[in-house]
Each structure stands twice: as C-alpha cells, then as structure tokens.
Amino acid sequence: MCKISIVVPVYNGAEHLESCLKSLTSQTMDDIEVIIVDDGSTDGSLRVADKFSLVHPFVKVYSTENKGPGHARNYGATQSRGDYLAFVDSDDRIEPDYCKAMYDKAITDENDLVLCLHDEIAVVEEDLASIIVSSPLFDLGNFTMADHRTLLAEVNIAPWGKLIERNLFFKAQFPNDLRYAEDQVFSAKVFCLARSIGSVKCVLYHYYRETYNGITSSFGSERLDWVKAMERLCMLVRSDDSFSRYRVELEFFIIAKSIRLCSAAVARVDAPTNLRVGLVKGIFATLKENISGWRDNPYYINDVRKRAHSSPSSREDYAARRYPNLVYCNYCEWHILILIVFSRVFPRVIFHAVLAIDQLLFSLFRKLRWEIIPHQIRKIN
Predict the structure, then answer these.
(1) By C-alpha distance, which of 26, 82, 85, 28 is closest to 56?
(2) Partners of 128 in the beta sheet?
(3) Higher pLDDT, 243 or 130
(4) Percent of the chain, pLDDT > 90?
(5) Nearest-angstrom CA–CA distance, 108 and 113
(6) Rounded to whole angstroms, how far apart are CA atoms 109 and 119?
(7) pLDDT tens across 171-191, in order?
(8) CA angle, 342 as apex, 338 and 348 as ends, to 5°?
(9) Which of 141-155, 225-239, 310-324 has the lowest mean pLDDT?
(10) Number of H helices, E strands in the chain
(11) pLDDT tier, 301 (very low <50, low <70, confident <90, very high otherwise)
(12) Contact by Cβ (8 Å): 180, 215
C-alpha cells in the first residue's frame, strides 16, 4: 500500500493535462501514486499521459471506453493502492505540498475526510485572475456533519480538494451511470458518512473555472442526469438511517441545485428548447413526487429572505475579486416555461431586455413578500 493515490480522469484534456501532471509529479511527499484514467479521449490525451508514465514510475495510465467522469474515478480507485484517495481534474493544478499537508492533517487528527481551501481561476482580459473560496467549515477544525447539520449546504460538492480515506470512498463511490451531478450524490454521501472531517486552511488546489471547454461550461443532454441524481438522493433519505437524520438539509441541497439549473435553463438560450423544457418539467415533477411542500423547507425560506436583500446580476467580476451574483429564478414551473418560450419567440436582444425587466419585478416582489409581509419561519433544529 502507498499513502495517497491521486486519481485523474481525463477526457480530451490534452491541451492542459501536461500542466496538471507537472504539479502532481512535483509533490514534496514520497510514497504516492498518480493514476490517470483516459475516458476514451480522441485528442492525444493518452499520449501526454504515457509520456509522464515513462519518466515517473509512480504514474500509472489506464484507458477505458467513454463512460463519464464518475465511472473513470471509480475505475481509478479500484486500481489504486493508497490508504487515502485524492481526485484532481485534468485541467487543474495543486500546490507542491498538497499531499503532505493533507496527509499530515489526516494522520495527526485521525480524519477520514480532509478539506483544503481552493481558488477559482478564470481568464480576465487575457490574464488569469483568481478568487479564494472559503466556507464556515474551515473555522471548525475537526468536526462531523452530525454536529453541524446546518452547514451541509456549505460543502464544496466537487470531488477535488479533498483527501478521502479508502474505506470511506468505497462506502460512497460515484454513480457509474451518471455523466452529470455524479459529484452531488457522491459528496452528499461522503460528508454524511465521514466519522471525522478536518480542514487545512491553506489554498492548495487551483480550480480553472469554466476557462476551458469542459462539462461545467456546457449545457447538453447530460444535464438531464440531475433528475436521476435527485431521485438517488431522495431514495437515500428514505431508505438509510445514516442519511435520514439529514432529511431537511439534503432536501435543501436538492432544492438549491434544482433552482440553479432552472435558472440556467432560462438563461441558456443557445441550448435546445426541448432540453430546457424537459429539464424544468423533470425537476418539478421530481420535487412534487419526492419533496412535497418543498417551499416550506426552512433553509429554502432563509435563503430566499437573504436573497431579498440583494439585486440579481449575472455579471462576473473576477478583476474585483468578487463572487458573481448568479441569476436565481425561484419561479414556479409555468413562469419558467413561459420565459423559455419567450426566448424562442423574441430576438435575443429583446429577450434579454424582457428577462432583465422580469428579474427586476420579481426581485421587488420578493423583497415585498419577505421583508415587509410577516411570515412565520420554522426554526432549524
């Protein structure tokens, strides 16, 4: 056995894979292995990976049919020997002491899950600008989600930026049949099952946010997998005592992601109409079937009240090192579907104006509803 196995799923990432692998092979810690799983690439990614494996014996390369990142990560884990597993995306980088800092924390405090800070990097006027992303979780030291249930919505659901004890990983694993949102299901399970979670309050992981043409910046048919992911999470809550205690929190986890995807379905006028409509209908049907009265979720109500204090904006300002306020359309189903129809009927410029006016009116209504009209809020236990 080695101490850490770093698993890197790759799909057509040849352009940036070399930079990623340089950061992995420059680790200050010995006794690690790097497992590259080429997920059916057609762009020469496998050649780049093989080049590194010839120079570095601890780099191992495997190739599979294209089945998605979840399957590739699971496959890489089955080939690994490490006491702990770490996942790195093929267009990201890690600091040289990433493995050492995370492993030392895990061993010293007997953590089966360790988190580190990361920054999000994007291109701003041909230069790279970054935002350091933090969370209240990093102020807790060592903790369990059972003791801090209210912070479950604060977790970074990405598989990267974490060190996961081997047995914990194999209790969770990624859904093999999902090409999108597989990380949502996996991370929810990992955080709820972890016996001891620790954090390293240093920026050790560099995430290139939608800089390249990855799945995060696309809006294709894979997005429909979110409906399957919703059903998996709801099934966990119903059938497993390890997750039922987090029912309210996991339901908000589902609600918040669903609203963001419905917002994207409105804004992504370049995507096929049938895909956008199918996604919205699927989400609302699943919410209705599995989370009746979801608008009464106390986390959802608190979130809406918080958003009533801010104005919607889709502008991303990395130069000012601010988070973008994403358009957040917690509309009813018919409202969203009408906006999607408008996006096909009106020219894009006119639709954007209609959407801006709609957002303004909705924000004013939300402010009136949640700041002026009294509303009884159920306490979060």
Answers:
(1) 26
(2) 123
(3) 243
(4) 66
(5) 12
(6) 25
(7) 999 999 999 999 999 999 999
(8) 145
(9) 310-324
(10) 13, 9
(11) confident
(12) yes
* CB neighbour list of residue 309: distance below 8 Å, 6 or more residues apart: 367, 371
| CA gap 277, 261 in Å, rounded | 11
The sign of the CA dihedral 215, 218, 223, 226 is positive
Two tokens at 378? 């159920």
* CA distance linking residue 122 with residue 209, whole number of Å: 6
Pairing of β 2-10 and β 82-87:
parallel
Backbone phi and psi for residue 5, each to the nearest 5 degrees, phi listed first: -110, 120
Cα 144 from Cα 194, distance rounded (Å): 7
Nearest to 90 by CA among 46, 28, 134: 46
pTM above 0.85, yes or no: yes
SS3 of 59, please?
A: strand
**Distance of CA 127 to CAs 19, 228, 318, Å?**
17, 38, 11
Q: Are 149 and 295 in contact (CB under 8 A)?
A: no
Lowest mean pLDDT among 78-82, 117-121, 342-346, 370-374: 370-374
Residues 17-50: pLDDT tens digits? 999 999 999 999 999 999 999 999 999 999 999 9
Residue 162 to residue 48: CA distance in whole angstroms: 25
First-last CA distance in the chain: 43
Give the pLDDT band of residue 360 (cuts 50, 70, 90).
Answer: confident
Q: What is the mean pLDDT of residues 163-173?
A: 97
Q: Which two tokens stand for residue 7?
A: 């698993």
Alpha carbons 286 and 234: distance in angstroms, whole number: 10
Q: Please tell me whether residue 205 adopts helix, strand or coil conformation.
A: strand
According to DSSP, the residues that pair with 9 across neighbouring strands are 37
